C-alpha cells in the first residue's frame, strides 16, 4: 500500500524534500534531488503513486520521474568519487544536499531523509528517519535521484561491462566484487571504500 492519500493532500505541508541515492555503493557518485511542491496542488494520482524509490520497480520510477519534474520544482546535485574519498561519504552527501536545496532558490522548510541535516543551510531543516514514506516531497526526491543515478551507472556500464553496473548500479554484489578482485578498481571506484571486503 502506498503511503500518501490524495483525499488528505491538504494535511501534508508545503516544503522542500531532499534525499540521496548511492551512499552505500562501492563506485559512482552520490546523487541528491531536492523537490518542492504543494501536495494539494499535485495531481491526485501522482501524489498517491509516490513512495520510497526502493519499493518501486524500475519501470514505475522511470514513468514517475518525468511527471515529478514537470509538476514540481526540482534541483539536483552530486557528490563525486573524488569528493567522497576526500571528505568521506557522509560529509559529501550532506554537502550535495545543501547544494541541491540552494539551487532551488526557494525560501521554504526543508525535510531530509535520514538522521542528519546538511550544515550551512539558511533555511529551517528537519531530518526524518524513513522520510520517504512520511513526507511526499522526500518520496519524490528519492525517485528522481534514483532514476538519474541508475541511468548514469548504466551509461558507465557500457564502458566497464565486466562489473555489471547495469544491474547492480555500483553496489557490492557478488559479480561486482568478483570483477573488482580479478580486474582491479576503475577510476569510478571509491578508494576510501577499498577496505571493504572484496
Question: How would you characterize this protein structure?
Answer:
The protein is α/β, with parallel strands linked by helices and 198 residues long. The chain has 7 helices and 5 strands. 44% of the residues are buried. The longest helix has 24 residues, at 136-159. Strand 1 (15-21) and strand 2 (30-37) form a beta hairpin. The radius of gyration is 17 Å and the shape is globular.
Attribute tags:
single chain; globular; 198 residues; alpha/beta; 41% helix
Shape: globular
Task: Give helix % range.
Answer: 40-55%
Counting H and I runs of at least 4 residues, what is the number of helices?
A: 7
- Our measurement of the CA-to-CA distance between the termini, rounded to an integer number of angstroms, reads 37 Å
> Low-confidence parts lasting 5 or more residues at pLDDT below 50?
none
Q: How confident is the prediction overall: mean pLDDT?
A: 96
Provide the structure class: alpha/beta
Q: Which helices and strands, and how do they pair?
A:
Elements: E1 15-21, E2 30-37, H1 44-49, H2 58-71, E3 73-79, H3 81-87, H4 89-104, E4 110-113, E5 125-128, H5 136-159, H6 165-168, H7 174-183
Parallel strand pairs: 1-4, 4-5
Antiparallel strand pairs: 1-2, 2-3
Helix pairs in contact: 2-5, 3-4
What is the gist of this entry?
41% of the residues lie in helices and 15% in strands.
